[in-house]
Amino acid sequence: MDTEYLLTWMQNPNDRREMSETTISANSEAKYMKTMHQYLTFRIDGEVYALCVSNVREILEVPRVTRIPKMPPFMAGVINLRGSVVPLIDLKLKFALGPTIITSHTAIIVLELPTENGEAKSTKIAGIYADAVHKVISIEPSDIVLPPTIGFSIDTAFIEGLAKNETGFISILAIEGIVSAKEIDSSLSELEKKEA
């Protein structure tokens, strides 16, 4: 899957649904995507990471980012996504790897964060920087192992597992570990204070 098609595919939810001959309801789409074992791969600080496509809403070029005072250091600011305010997280800072340097390859992956009650209306949206976005790959559960508890450059609470590939491992990020709904709510409340 080339990058241009990947960007189009991720930006159009209808294209994702057409991957199956059956009709999938909005409530069951995330479960369906997870059972397909499809992961979006991307690079941060020279390492390859992956996220389940059920959590990926779209991929963007880096737009204008508005910095908000009193946000945690890993919150890069907010972006305007078709009229919606979307908090932007610098995972390199959250992983204690230094700030992201914006280049022509840098992208923003917009994520849909899981909620406890599972209602679509309470879905939280956040963006994360990626140094580069690669492709969507299939990873079978049998190819995923638990991360080691020592000798890792980042906190393993962020890692759901390690997927074996030809050259080594791909770290599969735990969506709940990299950003919480509480962090999103906190950043949005700081924005509201700024605008008041």
Account of the 3D structure:
With about 200 residues, this protein is of the alpha+beta class. It has a single domain (about 5-195), classed as CheA-289, Domain 4 (OB fold (Dihydrolipoamide Acetyltransferase, E2P), Beta Barrel), CATH 2.40.50.180. It has helices at about 5-10, 15, 25-35, 90-95, 175-180, 180-195; strands at about 40-45, 45-50, 55-60, 75-80, 85-90, 105-115, 125-130, 130-140, 145, 160-165, 170-175. The strands form 2 sheets. Strands 8-1-2-11-10-9 form a 6-stranded mixed beta sheet. Strands 3-6-7-5-4 form a 5-stranded mixed beta sheet. It is globular, with a radius of gyration of 17 Å.
Key words describing this protein structure:
6 helices; OB fold (Dihydrolipoamide Acetyltransferase, E2P); 196 residues; 6-stranded mixed β-sheet; alpha+beta; 5-stranded mixed β-sheet; disordered N terminus; 11 strands
Report, as a whole number of angstroms, the end-to-end distance.
46 Å
Number of strands: 11
Query: Helix share of residues?
Result: 10-25%
Total number of helices: 6
CATH superfamily: CheA-289, Domain 4
Largest sheet: 6 strands, mixed
Offer a quick outline of the entry.
With 196 residues, the protein is of the alpha+beta class. The chain has helices at 3-11, 13-17, 26-35, 91-94, 175-178, 181-195, and strands at 38-44, 47-52, 56-61, 75-81, 84-89, 107-113, 124-130, 132-138, 144-145, 159-165, 168-173.
